[in-house]
Amino acid sequence: MTKVNDFVVKFANVNGSGSASANLMFAKSIFRMGIPVTPKNIFPSNIQGLPTWFEVRISKDGYAARREGIDCFITLNPQTYQTDMKEILPGGYLIYDNTMPRNFSRKDISYIGIPMASICADHYEDPRQRQLFKNIVCLGALAVLLKIDLKIIENLIKEDFEKKPKLIPPNIKALQLGRDYALENLDRNLKISLKKTRTTKKKILIQGNEAAGLGCVYGGATVAGWYPITPSTSLVEAFQKYVNIFRVNDSGEVNAGIVQAEDEMASVGMAIGANWNGARAFTATSGPGISLMSEFLGLAYFAEIPLVLFNIQRGGPSTGMPTRTQQSDILACAYASHGDTKHVLLFPSDPKECFEMAAQSFDLAEILQTPIIVMSDLDIGMNDWVTDPLQWDDNTKFQRGKVLKKKDLDDLVNWGRYLDVDGDGIPYRTLPGTHETKGSYFTRGTSHDAFAGYTEDGRINADNMMRITKKFKKSLKFLPKSIRKKAKKDTNIGLIYFGSTSVAVDEANDILEDQGYAVDLLRIRSFPFGRGISTFIDDHDHVIVMEQNRDAQMRSLLINELDKNGSKIHSILNFDGSPVTADFIVKSFLSLLKKNQFNIKSLKKKKSAA
Amino acid sequence: MSFIKKPSVHHPRLPKNELGLTRRDYEGALSTLCAGCGHDSVSSAIIEACFNLSIPAHKLAKLSGIGCSSKTPTYFLNKSHGFNSVHGRMPSVTTGANLANRDLYYLGVSGDGDTASIGLGQFCHIIRRRLNMLYIVDNNGTYGLTKGQFSATNDKNSKSKKGEDNPFESIDLAALAIQLGAGFVARSFSGDKDQLIPLMTAALSYKGFAFIDIVSPCVTFNNHAQSTKSYEYFREHNEALGYLDVIPEKEEITVKYAEGSSKEIQIHDGSKMILHKLDKDHDPYSRSNSLKVLNETQEDGKIVTGLIYLDKNEMDLHDTINSNKKPLNTLKESDLCPGSKGLDYVNDSFR
After folding, report:
1. Which of A41, A62, B42, B266 is at a distance of 20 to 30 A from B313, taking alpha carbons?
2. Parent domain of B194
3. Cα angle, residue B99 at apex, residues B98 and B102 outer, rounded to 5°
4. Which residues of A touch B340 (CB under 8 A)?
């Protein structure tokens, strides 16, 4: 039986060999055929030479999580093909460059050799071109084998090289060389095949960092201090890109100030200084940067300065796995810095939400006068995701929070920077340069009274700390609410998840439902936790928290912050650096069920459909 | 320190500046530093310079790090917004503040611990970026608040109060500033108002990164006989390069100066500096010459003061990044948000 629009293709390449753009064209051409596609770039922390993989899941049903078991593996890296081969499903295909002989051991898969190197040697003089075009020759052959519309790939080549048109003809020639070889020499009746549909017609294919950088433009950010660190760098690059497109005025001046800092401390310091002075400002980093920024985060928390910080999480601890994904900075961010501190966290689950939450975070930072940390990760940030198109309501107005203007100050008698005038714990702030004689104050990280004066009176400091606690309690109404999905049947099992694992959880839930299990779902979108999360835990006898770290950090945070009994809260943990699969969640769920003997008598296991 | 509250009543006939303000209008809270601390003299000089320039206090932001020197912004210009940030990080906070609003004056006050040790990286990089600000270091060679440890600007073999030798080389912040591209570099002494006030006045008028390294003795921990940052040592070893007069834009130069000994320097805001040179060979426009003077005087055991280096090409970070001439913090939704139309374009590019 042929699998149409439902299989996984994986490429094994050598880093720096020009495979990335060809691989992305492969994924994008499938997307343009209207078929849901999920590419994952599995890359090393390296510039040239180490193995790199590109995994493409094609799913007619639109499942966007990784799936293990490869239907077609294009093994172009001699260092890894022996181990790569093991991932291929029985009956699957291994495609290789047969210019050099290779040894293959498995008998249950098919081998397709394409002499990519020798085709390129015959047609190109330049050694670099010979190397690069092997990937395009391969793409041409794949188009024939999997039935990709070659016109689509040709258009992608033209778009990619719009600014270097000289490169278009040799690329198209390479594509055609691959196509011709396949047409003349290969058996084209594969058991996997692509067919045009309209499923993704209105959708876009975009990376989370791209969307978040754009969200910063829409959110009105004008200042960015940043320091390069994988996997956050592309967020600031996207911000720069869209600033160049949208923010250059008629005189050629730029409506933004972007500065590459000397380190993460300076980058967050710049963002804090700019926010203090009334500009919307942000920085982006990953785990090691969070550690370095912690002192400044405490200052912004205590001095109540707005700040937007993107944490594109990667594998930790320490330098960890810089090019792999995890959700392992939950506790480090929730309580970043010494002393009693707590920070608002947002958890986007896909690029569209990265865009929305990025824009929203600047409102939140100014309304609440505190750091907002957007907890994305490498999987969302640096992989292409199919999402609905980005949307913007043109009636949106920036919510700048409680900032006193000159005329407000004229009428004020007894202004204090940290006075709780409205009873919501949120004080009024002033910006430098506003008024000749009123509204100046001294921002400090030392203990201060309601008038920002230095105090060593412990009671005054305690009162101020309690006001900040009140502010956090009142913050809930501004934060994105958790999303609850009820199972089709009543159940006493609840699954809590957040961020990039959402797609895998959705798919796992469908599988479990097919197997007769009913699970209520709750997706956390922000911290501090709202009442809905507390109720969800109370409503279920068994709660499972799915997260991508070793120590069940979100579970700890839930137990700690909501004062819950941990004995009924279980974990599914995936922390090998790869995005979790639905299969892993299903297996873990079933093993939890067995091990803990969940009391699920309210559930009736559906009679086996088979 | 004193516990007496400052009276808020002014003498009616105090001299006023162009804004109609008196020196008292530029004061701050009462200092809590030790009696006789050099830093308080620096604060007085800041008040005097701002008064002379008729700077509206609310148009100046004063920022600092952590330490005795970093406390001082509380003691001057109480109509200005102040920001006492974290240790060694004043430069980055000031960079952000300046990016947000290029129209304010930025005054950063730091110390030798805050700048030459924990903050050395940020100090170097803010200079490279030529942020438009005046950066002052109250340099006393010691960690006062933690009771007298050596700082990185403490001279080698200068002794601590307990008589211990400092075995390590000192960092010359003025030399570093010149090497890294600061446009205005001076050194002075907290006890020499005649030199310090005009230097500050000129530095505040300068567009670009202006740095003044001010030897400011710590009376409690580093003012003993074997210290090279004491009042006595400084007075014996000071070698002044010259003195400055700053003439505001609207005023005519009325005093005649002896030929050859003075130099007129135009500042971008239209005012002029008259530099009275004591050392005729010193050319403040030459980086290499300025560094040579610093090195040679140091070898001779002297402390050179005055305007050491001046780059006539005044420019700042905003020029480099070509940001809007209007302060970025005044831009509105219409300037910043491309709206749904912009998204149509973006969405199309991802299909």
Report:
1. B42
2. 23-333
3. 60
4. 391-394
Give ipTM to 2 decimals. Answer: 0.96
- pTM for the model: 0.96
Q: Do A254 and B322 touch (CB under 8 A)?
A: yes
Q: For chain B, give me the number of helices (H) and strands (E)?
A: 12, 13
* Fold assignment, A206-387: Rossmann fold (3.40.50)
User: Cα–Cα distance between B274 and B244 in angstroms, integer?
Assistant: 6
Set of chain B residues whose Cβ sits within 8 Å of the Cβ of A279: 96, 99-101, 328-329
Q: How many domains does chain B have?
A: 1
Look at residue B271 in the predicted model and tell me its pLDDT: 78
The whole-angstrom distance between A80's CA and the closest CA on chain B is 33
Q: SS3 of A532, please?
A: helix
Give the B window 101-130 contacts with A, CB below 8 Å: 101, 103-104, 121-122, 124-125, 129
CB A273 within 8 A of CB B82: no
Q: Is B339 at the interface with chain A, CB within 8 A?
A: yes
Q: Where are the domains of chain A?
A: 3-193, 206-387, 406-478, 483-596
CB atoms within 10 A of CB A459: 8
Asked: is A3-193 a CATH 3.40.920.10 domain? The reply is yes
pLDDT surpassing 80 at residue B256: no
Give the integer Cα–Cα distance in Å for A333 and A342: 8
Q: Flag whether residue B54 sits within 8 Å of chain A, measured between CB atoms.
A: no
User: Phi and psi for A534 in degrees, rounded to 5?
Assistant: -60, -45
Q: What's the mean pLDDT in B39-56? A: 97
Looking at the partner chain, which of A281, A391, A431 has a beta carbon nearest the beta carbon of B96?
A281
How far B63 CA sits from the closest chain A CA (Å)? 9
Q: Which chain B residues are within 8 Å of A390, Cβ to Cβ?
A: 343, 346-347
The CATH number of whichever domain residue B198 belongs to comes to 3.40.50.970
CA distance B83 to chain A (A): 5
CB pairs under 8 A between A and B: 230
Q: Is residue B311 part of a domain?
A: yes
Chain B residues whose beta carbon lies within 8 Å of the beta carbon of residue A434? 58
Query: CB–CB of B96 and A442 under 8 A?
Result: no
Selecting from A299, A391, A440 the residue whose C-beta is nearest the C-beta of B343 gives A391
For residue B71, being part of any structural domain is answered with yes
pLDDT by residue (tens digit) across A245-296?
999 999 999 999 999 999 999 999 999 999 999 999 999 999 999 999 999 9
Residue B1 lies in a domain: no
Nearest CA in chain A to B131: A259
Looking at every residue in chain B, the average pLDDT score rounds to: 92
If pLDDT is split at 50, 70 and 90, which confidence band does A609 have? Answer: very low
Reported as a single tens digit per residue, the pLDDT across A404-434 is 999 999 999 889 999 999 999 999 999 999 9
Residue at B8 is within a domain: no
CATH number of A483-596: 3.40.50.920
Q: Residue B99 in contact with residue A270, Cβ under 8 Å?
A: yes
The CA-CA-CA angle for residues A81, A84, A86, to 5°, reads: 120
pLDDT tens-digit readout, A34-81: 999 999 999 998 988 999 999 999 999 999 999 999 999 999 999 999
